[in-house]
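Problem 12. The chain below contains 59 residues. Write out its predicted structure in token notation.
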Amino acid sequence: MAEEGRDVSAPRWRDVVNIPAFGGVTVRVAFDDFGGRPVFRCHTLDHEDLGMMGTLEVR
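Solution.
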């Protein structure tokens, strides 16, 4: 995992990741037990409408 391009020395399980404006994170997700189209989104409804919501296709 990485935050702002720097490796995270002790990654931990999270269900929320705060990303600063113009920032970025790299996440790893285990899709071992399910497939389909899970949703990822910002928790602020107005942000979802502006494109901060999407789906992943797990095969």
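Discussion. Helices lie at 45-49. Students who got a different answer should revisit the alignment rule from Section 12.3.
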